[in-house]
Amino acid sequence: MHEIVESFREVKKAFYQLLSKQADKYGITGIQFKALKTIQDNPQIGITELADLMRLGNSTASGVIDRLVKAGLVERKRLESDRRSVSLEVTEQGKEVYRLTDLQYSKAIAAVLENSEEDFEHLLQTHRKIIASLEKVREETNE
């Protein structure tokens, strides 16, 4: 069992390093890439929700956003409904940087993972079963 957990850890690390290498070509980090994706996928998201979705502390998420704002990739906007709240929005430049990074990352992954579609489906199904089992165990231990 420890070998499986270690294997997941190594695969995750390798994918993240690959993402970081591709993101670096466009002047962002892997975590900034993930923030851009999360903001695009969640319109009017705030820092706290972003931190939760990315599993980061609020101060870490705030630092990531500060750097993205400084780079012109993200804007902070006051909500009309609540002037105290700030939402995040990816700028056109941010969308382009995200698109280019994602394109390069996808090409790199395709080159690395030259398995058949059937192998991918089997692997994905196995991962989903493991995740479901882990979530069930986690829920049972929280009760």
Automatic annotation (TrEMBL):
Gene3D superfamilies: Winged helix-like DNA-binding domain superfamily/Winged helix DNA-binding domain
Chain ranges of the HTH marR-type domain: 1-132
Organism: Paenibacillus macerans (Bacillus macerans)
Keywords: DNA-binding, Transcription, Transcription regulation
Keyword Coiled coil found: no
Keyword RNA-binding listed: no
GO MF terms held by the record: DNA binding; DNA-binding transcription factor activity
Classification via InterPro entries: HTH_MarR-typ, Tscrpt_reg_MarR-type_CS, WH-like_DNA-bd_sf, WH_DNA-bd_sf
Protein name, as recorded: MarR family protein
Pfam families: MarR
